[in-house]
Amino acid sequence: MKAFNPTCWFSAVLLFLPAITRAGSDDKLDLSTEASSAYSNYAQKGSYEDVPWVGEVPAWNYYDIFGNHLLEGFYLYGMSLDRNSEGGGTSAISLHPFLLKWMNGLVQVGDVSDNCGILAMVGDRVKSEFTPYTFKQSLYCGVRIDAFFDFFHGANSVSLITSRISNTGTYGMLVARGTETSNGDWLHGAHIMKNIDDLASFGATFINAHHEEGSMPNKFDGALADSFPENTPTALTLYGVNGRCNLPQLKLELDGEYARSQEVFGGSFKPDAGNVATLKARWNMIDQLRFGGESYLIQSRYKTTFSDPVLPLGDALGSGKYLYSLIEDNDDRDEYPENGISKLNTVPRGDFDGVIPLEYDKDKNGKHDFEEDFLSYDCDPPRSKLYFDRNNNGVPDDIEDDAYPDYPHVPSYYLPRERYLRYDDLEGLWKTDTSDGQVSKGLLGFHLYGTYTFFQDLDLTLGGIMENSEKNSFQKRYEDTTVIGTTYDPENATTFYSLVQYKKDMGKDKYLTIQNYARKIQDNIPNHTQTFSFGMDPAAGKEGTLYNYAVDQLDYRDAFVEMLIAEYTLFKNRGFNFTTRGKYEFTKHLPHLDFNYQDANISSATLVNKCQYIYLLPVLKDMFLIPKFKDMVEFMGYGPRSDLLDNKYRRGTMSNAAYLVYEWKFTQKTAITSGLQFTAFNDFFNNDENFYHGNFTIQLLMKDRYTGLNTILTTGFSKYRYTFYNAPGIAHNPLNNPHRITDNISSYDWFLKIHCGF
Predict the structure, then answer these.
(1) Among residues 612, 590, 609, which one has the least CA distance to residue 601?
(2) Is the distance from CB of 350 to CB of 547 less than 8 angstroms?
(3) What per-residue confidence (pLDDT) applies to 480?
(4) Could you give the CA distance from residue 730 to residue 478 in angstroms, rounded to a whole number?
(5) What single string gives the DSSP state of each residue in 549-603?
(6) What's the pLDDT tens digit per position in 612-663?
(7) Tens digit of pLDDT for each residue in 84-119?
(8) Which among 109, 116, 163, 550 could bridge 149 via Cys, Cβ 3.0 to 4.6 Å?
């Protein structure tokens, strides 16, 4: 018999000791089978012993990678990436439906104290913004980790993000369901900030989006199979710095940012990078005099979008999320970007509630409030008051919607299928190409202004904006309104402006406002916008928000514009409220016949009068009768006259609307509201467009709390009618009425809606 190796003796002792310990604490130490579970009669016990199930699955026990018990519960989210030396591997993201059902698609875990802390957020709608030119998303889907700590004269902060781009996971059903891919794409980013005694702050940003191949190592430059052309983008990297400085002794504030974007073709080739540089300054010279300025450069090669060449349409598995745009397009500043796709199946592509800002669409139904029955009393069209149009495209900035990233300064873009010249870095030569609608021309500009306060109620601001596109464009040339050719010319814009504002608080809820805004404009930079509608999106094969380009016709190529507005308001919570506003606008076009820009003098006048009386009826408690009246008159004319311009510059209409609203809050939770509206519309240039419009609506509202949430039920009945009393039976202009009616019609609607919230 061979002698035991000392190591074997030592191992035997280690194995024998637990057995002795177990023998002392457990009666069973043999190979017999376990005793079967005993029969239980739940009636005898008095109740059923329920195992904790929540929803579809029971709670499970989870352990960390070292075997330590974590908790009894549910697996909400998982992200993994594995690669091996043989060139294989997968990436996966797992989402449990409870993440959506219980936690509104977001979970956070943190450890935070007064002077330091860390917070991890995981979900499909983590609102994130690093800097205005590098990363900004309302519906960021993935992982974000924030940390802060005090060190060296102030707070320091760090933010990290990571996610997959075109497939961010699919909510499972019964168990955690991972979405595994061998080829995929990833988004990684970091942002750090250093504050110094509340006087200055400095930051740095790094963002990378790249495609990965399962057979190749995961790297920031990306990789592609040889079957793709060598000029296929495989990665996009952004890096930059930003800072802010406050010098109280000099009364000076500075704010700036520099960023660079670098594309990668075919996993290795790097074309010329694109840069962004901005600087803002504000100087309060004295109490009455303030100066400000900003300069900005956005090069045409600067990009914040990356489309995976293998998955150009994003996720094909149904999660409906695609983080292709690092800077979102969200012109109405709500929770749903126009170019974003929510993970919620009930939310279609795009901004499902339309692109109208809340100020003009408070119920977010995709319709302007000034065009809706009853809501039209409180909301006036933006052109009936002072509006700003910084890019001179004829659309007020408040309601402008475009198809481009929301940079603070948006350059001009070539239209889809528009010709342009570009330099091919791979071949080293210039080419004529056609745009896909997202090709930037770049922008260089500066803005200087000064404001002087004469006394408490009167301000004068003088300023100038000068801009030019980095790239030229093909521009049509005319002779006697006929196109005779095109030239490849630069694009420039210059605006000098003055703004005088007098606002007087006259006491007892009375206000008087007078404004005069004058501009001298020379602008041949087209800034295109877009319109929207709801319907079937052929690209996605499902309902969504559809967008159409509205081409900037360069109506302010060379013009002088002046607006004069006067408004008087009397406001009381209960009792008589009254507003009258008059606006006169004059525009002078200076001719450039080689661009078919005709000489024209355009003038318009708008008068808005509205009043209401909130009367508390003495019959019962909380019973109100609210009569309202709104009158709006618009005149627009131009010269020299041309029939081709009548639809654009000739208008004369008057709209009178009377409302009677009755409201009875007969309990704290329940109220009945009914309303009558009668509108008479008159077109002074075409009597055939005159019509009457009536609406009757009654609504029952009930409030309550359910499962910790405020719940509101509204149900009611609405009926409206249109009568074109001069010319029935013909097609009328649908833009003259909120329902887009073209002839006599009567309609009714019954509705029931339930909302919940906090």
Answers:
(1) 590
(2) yes
(3) 86
(4) 38
(5) EE----TTSEEEEEEEEEEEEE--SSEEEEEEEEEEEEEEEPPBGGGTB--EEEE
(6) 998 888 877 778 899 999 999 999 999 888 777 888 889 999 999 999 999 9
(7) 666 666 667 777 767 766 776 788 899 988 888 999
(8) 116
Cis peptide before 640 (omega within 30 of 0): yes
Strands 510-523, 492-505: pairing kind: antiparallel
Question: Is-contact 314 166, C-beta < 8 A?
Answer: yes
Give the rounded distance of the alpha carbon of 558 from its chain centre: 33
pLDDT tens-digit map of 391-402? 999 999 988 988
Residue 46 is encoded by which pair of tokens?
Answer: 């008095």
Cα separation, 529 vs 333, whole angstroms: 16
List the alpha helices (DSSP H) in 253-331.
Answer: none
Mean pLDDT of 51-76: 73
Model's pTM, two decimal places?
0.84
What's the gap between Cα 437 and its chain centre?
A: 19
pLDDT tens digits, one per residue of 119-138: 998 887 788 899 999 999 88
How many C-beta atoms surround the C-beta of residue 646 within 10 A?
12
The three-class DSSP label of residue 469 is strand
Whether the Cβ atoms of residue 355 and residue 207 lie closer than 8 Å to each other: no
Looking at 564-713, list the stretches that DSSP marks H as alpha helix, in order from N- to C-terminal side: 646-649
Residues 198 and 155: their CA atoms lie apart, in Å, by 9
Q: What is the DSSP letter of 735?
A: G
CA distances (Å), 235 to each of 129, 209, 617, in order?
21, 6, 68
Burial of 644 (C-beta count, 10 Å sphere; 0-12/13-18/19+): exposed
List the structure tokens of 3. Answer: 């002698």
DSSP code of 100? H
Task: Please answer whether residues 655 and 673 qualify as being in contact, where contact means their C-beta atoms are separated by less than 8 angstroms.
Answer: no
Measured CA to CA, the distance from residue 274 to residue 471 in angstroms comes to 13
DSSP state at residue 5: P
Distance CA 326, CA 308 (A): 13
pLDDT digits (tens, 9 = 90+) for 317-334: 434 455 578 898 888 887
Residue 20's pLDDT band, with cuts at 50, 70 and 90, is very low
Separation of alpha carbons 645 and 575, rounded Å: 45
Inter-residue long-range contacts of 732-738, CB under 8 Å, 24+ positions, other chains counted: 732/688, 732/689, 732/691, 733/689, 736/653, 736/681, 736/683, 736/689, 736/691, 737/681, 737/691, 737/693, 738/367, 738/371, 738/372, 738/373, 738/376
Phi-psi group of 225: left, alpha or beta (phi > 0 → left; psi -120 to 50 → alpha; rest → beta) = beta
Name the nearest CA neighbour of 204 among 173, 172, 175, 240.
Answer: 240
Residue 263: CB atoms within 10 Å: 19
Name the residue type at position 714: T
DSSP run (H or E) holding 7: helix 6-25
For residue 264 the two structure tokens come to 């990668």
Short-list 47, 50, 45, 74, CA closest to 62? 74
Residue 409's closest CA among 446, 451, 358? 446
Please state the φ and ψ torsions of residue 422, each to the nearest 5 degrees: -140, 155
Q: Considering only CA atoms, which of 248, 165, 176 is closest in space to residue 209?
A: 165
Query: CA distances (Å), 498 to each of 426, 563, 734, in order?
Result: 49, 11, 37
**Beta carbons within 8 Å of 608's beta carbon, 6+ residues apart:** 380, 384, 579, 580, 581, 582, 630, 631, 632
CA 384, CA 380: separation in Å to the nearest integer? 7
pLDDT band at 304 (very low <50, low <70, confident <90, very high): very high
d(CA 493, CA 132): 23
Name the token pair of 477: 């040339």
